[in-house]
Amino acid sequence: MKLSEKTMAKTVAASNFLTEFADFFLFFALIVRETFSRNFEFKEFFRQCFQVGYKSLPLVSITGTIMGLVLTIQSRPVLIDFGAVSMLPGMVAISLIREMGPVITALICAGKIGSGMGAELGSMKVTEQIDAMEVSSTNPIRFLVVTRVLAATVMIPILILYADALGIIGSWAGANIKGDVPFVLFFSQAFSHVSFMDFLPAFIKSFFFGAAIGLVGCYKGYNAGRGTESVGVAANSAVVLASLLVIILDLVAVQITDMLG
Amino acid sequence: METNQKVPLPDASAKKMRDKPVIEINHIRKSFGKQEVLKDISLKLFTGENLVVLGKSGSGKSVLIKCIVRLLIPDEGTIHIFNEDVNALSSDGLAELRQKIGFLFQSGALYDSMTVKQNLEFPLRRIKSDLTKSEREDKILEVLENVGLADALDKMPSQLSGGMRKRISLARTIVVSPMIMLYDEPTTGLDPVTSDEISSLINTIQEKYKTSSLIITHDINCALNTADRIIMLKEGENYKEGTIADYRKSTDPFIKSFFMQKE
């Protein structure tokens, strides 16, 4: 039986997708193995923590503050209409801590950190720097990939907490544009509505966001093609896939939290 | 430029060298999809010699050199280095073997995010981990002086010219005192004067560090300046093997086309 060209093309596309999927899991398995192997690259890990964490601070600061500010400015008139303006700090705090802070910060980090890792490793691949590392008896997965993935896994949750805090400060600033709310009162009202179970699932999922961003950025960069064009492709696809994974992981996390009550 | 040519080895030394192959490649084949890049390549690199593998672009030279250090794995055939089968080694065994091999990449492959000093320190810290900080610094300075760039210590790779990058890359390779040097197109992209300087440096390094060298090139000047023996490749297969004198005597049009470039 002869398959039509259309069917053949679909078969090839499906086969490519499955191959990529398998490659991704093999890459992940390799990272797990190298993470627990001897000679962990501590110095490079701390350097990457600095790159991922400290160098993302300005962007996360601006995003976090604006997030709280905009949320307050948008919701305040509606809450006034319902006579529930006193609920504003609690509402903002819960939405920031549970959902907006983790997801928006993770998406921003997918753009900055994911693309940075994709482009850096991609250009190292194109200019044979990864090969040079390998022939000088340095395991590039351990030195380049494990350190970056772990740095993203550790630093992105910290950046998310920082963005949450700045978001609440931004919200207080927003509330003061048309009102006069003391800082201490705003905070005590905000946190009186937040329980530990609002905070914990969001904090746990932020580690998964960080790991996904690091993993995808490194996978795309490390497996970039040989031409210079592939550096751009690696950076771009790292952002797209990391953002998509963040959204999917968020959906899964929300479902699990919901099931656990 | 003729004066730069390597003096042919006396017969006795040549024979002595031939007793000990440090690299032995037997009938390797490598394909990428339907494209067969290496069809049947065999060669031996003997202790202390400079063996040049000469061929046109696309003849499989770079694939061959990457197979030697297992950056690529051949589909068929065997590669032995110091009598060890490269493709049968464990990852630890391979890492140990690679410590004895220096590899100069076509692009230089300097680490962009590191200074020249850090580039040289990187392999040194890993391969010669018993050295103290001052011993490491002395060693770095020594190799940089050998390549004539002692003042480039704190520069970033982006601040260096093409020739300087090649020299620093060479310094990074020799800093760990390898026993075998593999050069992948060492003069590609360089002007004739700098190319000759790199060729001279290859000879100096061989004399000073007593290395055995495999030089992959399409540059006939580089081949003439460095080779003890030349193996010519054509379309992924061994085409001819011999000394420079053998090649000069040849009437084969393909071989003559290379030597015509020189004349």
CATH topology name of the domain at 9-47 and 57-100 and 216-263 in chain B, in short, is Rossmann fold
What is the number of independent domains of chain A?
2
SSE string of chain B: HEEEHEEHEHHHEHEHEEHH
Largest sheet of chain B: 6 strands, mixed
| Classification by helices and strands of chain A | mainly alpha
Number of strands of chain B: 10
Order of helices and strands of chain A: HHHHHHHHH
How large is the count of helical segments of chain A? Answer: 9
Instruction: State which percent range the strand residues of chain A make up.
Output: under 5%
Description:
The complex is a heterodimer of chains A (261) and B (263). Chain A is mostly helical. Chain A folds into two domains: 1-36; 41-260, no CATH class. Chain A is 84% helix and 0% strand. The longest helix of chain A has 39 residues, at 88-126. The mean pLDDT of chain A is 92. In chain B, helix 4 runs parallel beside helix 6 and helix 7 runs parallel beside helix 8 (220-226). The radius of gyration of chain B is 18 Å and the shape is globular. The N and C termini of chain B lie close together (11 Å). At the A-B interface, helix 5 of A face helix 3 and helix 4 of B.
Quick overview:
The complex is a heterodimer of chains A (261) and B (263). Chain A has helices at 5-35, 42-52, 57-81, 88-126, 129-135, 140-175, 183-192, 196-222, 229-260. Chain A has 261 residues and is mainly alpha-helical.
